[in-house]
Amino acid sequence: MRTLYLLIGFLTTLQVPVWAQSAAKSPFTLVGTAQQAVVVLPATEPACVRLAVQGLVSDVAKITGKTLRVVPDEKNLSGQPTLTVGTWGRSDAVLQKHGKETAALRGQWEAYQVRSSDKNLLIAGSDERATMFGIYHFLEKYLGVDPLYFWSDRAPEPRQILQWDDVAISQSTPSFRYRGWFINDEDLLTEWYESGGVRRLDYPYYGQVVNPAIMKQVVEALVRLRMNLIIPASFIDIRNPAEAALVQEAARRGVFLSMHHVEPMGVSAFTFFNYWQEKTGEKPLFSFYSSRQKLEEVWRVYAQEWAKYPNVIWQIGLRGIADRPMWMADPGISQSDADRGKLISEAMRVQRAMIQEVDQRPNPPITTTLWAEGSTLNQAGYLDIPKNVTVVFSDNSPGWKWQKDFHETPRRPEHTYGVYYHHQLWGAGPHLAQGIPPQHTYAVFRQAHQKQSTHYAILNVSNVREFQLGLAASGEMLYDFEKFEPGTFTQTWMQERYGSQTAAARQAYQTYFAGFVLHDRQQVPMLLDGQTRSFALGLLKKIDLQLTDPVKYQEAETKARQATTESTWGQTSLGDAHPKPANDQELLEKVLRQHQGHTQALRQAEALLPKLEAKQQAFLKTNLISQIQIMLGLEEWLVAILRAKKGLDEGHKAQAQKYLKEATDAFTRMKTGQALNVTDGKWQHWYRGEKKMNLKNAEQLTQSTYQLISQQ
């Protein structure tokens, strides 16, 4: 009889098709009609994981209206479905019970698994950031939560049921070890909300501290994109409690903290001057050459403050006032490049020794960023970079290509290598309008990947909101570069935002990015928003002088053709950021061509607009149309000023006056673009701190020049 039962059972199994057996598997139900899963969050998990769980609970509530219960263990759960979170090395007992198969994660860097099994879900990480990233990856992939939801205003679709037959995410160690954001040129963030405090800077920008509530949103977006590093502001003085609060907010999220390359050891020129003003009332020269002991004292004091945080990535090097070489403010420093290289090398040696004194980690991460003259001196072989320091190469033109030393520097075993990449750069742009498409960012980072420069990647992201496409792409490619494909990413990104109109939206974005013209010889963008502004203001200054003092104008023109320390440094170190046209006629032809391309992009975007749903329309307006309008206004401004200058040069003052009037009118279009980004509610004061591009001041200068010529 037993044999008969076995035979019947065997035959019955044969008769059940594979699909039916699969269907019999119990799904994981996070939120159902009768009950929802309970989140098991062990007490051993750190703050960053707890904050991620809070985000999960909040996201589920937004989607379903239901609030998940969070408990520290499984006591009294009586068979309820669970979502268990655990980190190897912290919650091993829980993981041994529910996820032995994830034990291979032990000892890995930021690797995680998310998997469902028998009505339950497990999120397991190799370290605390891995577990945090696993939670956010699950929210994005399965619940449809935009990592940049605060900046995009894209809420996930409401659903009553959250249930999946199978949940499976497996993420190995990221392609780039340290990867993150530099909040730089953050003029809009600084004054958008009420001030977080006062900063002591002898500088027209950053007089206020970014509101802590905004920094909270910045850091949350960072970690939702699975980035693990942040430089939280420009020129941070960590001894100012209001500024230290920004660092503390980032530290809560478990990310690594670092410093602007202009403030090695956490010390900028502003910090140095403030320190000595408070201590003695004096203002010594900010120089490692002429004030070495005083500078070393400040380095040591600030190193001790930074060392109080657990995840610091130190920055070493030597920078002067206003992100320029130190020798520009100290004529006593040798004018020999070899001697300058020795000075920087000695400073790095001293800084590294200080770090070893204050940082108790056996091998604290240290970087030096080869920006501007650092790149030039390194390329010439004049820098002696200490062992075990990560050498960080920079792009020169914003986001377009690496400087020459990236390609020519041999990779040595005593160093690791990384990169500094600009999604934004105030002086040249992009700043108010994005300019670099994801496929080009990918091409540039592919070179970094091929050249073993993957230990560190810092992205200059400024005010965040304008660069959502680039930031989303960067987050994915830096975590898993081998699997990233820019075309697939772009298609998915467009599909998520524009649905059935994906093809038309993708074409409008493509036309916009392709509209930016390149310099013929250098093959880099030459009319990004900042570059366009610089050309226009430079021409306005010439017109003013031409109208008020023709003799001085001719003298200035002659002097401009002569090399100075500043101009030589700029062309040698930053030439690709500010490529020059052969003459004004070439510039006019370039800007007219760019205007034509952006006009076509605007037509495509506006034709698409009525075909979209309301929330899709809102995103297209803020993420693309507003930026096209700003660029078109800048281009029309520059075209009018170029024509006014030509008219004045040819003795046609009436013609020059006509075009200067057109230049003043161009600001109407820029304001139209900005108005699309300023709505009631949280965005009402978005441009209140707009002081970097400073379009208001540019308009006033243009009106002043127009009035000047009108009165003659």
UniProtKB/TrEMBL annotation:
Q: Does the keyword Hydrolase apply?
A: yes
Q: Which GO terms describe its biological process?
A: carbohydrate metabolic process
The domain of life is Bacteria
Specify the signal sequence span.
1-20
Matching Gene3D superfamilies, A to Z?
Answer: Chitobiase/beta-hexosaminidase domain 2-like, Glycosyl hydrolase family 115
What keywords are annotated for this sequence in UniProt?
Hydrolase, Signal
Q: Name one GO molecular function term.
A: hydrolase activity
One Pfam family of this protein, by short name?
Answer: Glyco_hydro_115
Outline the segment boundaries, as ranges, of region: Disordered.
557-577
Biased amino acid composition, Polar residues: 561-574
The record's listing under InterPro entries reads: GH115, GH115_sf, Hex-like_dom2
Protein's name according to its UniProt entry: Uncharacterized protein
Species of provenance? Rhabdobacter roseus
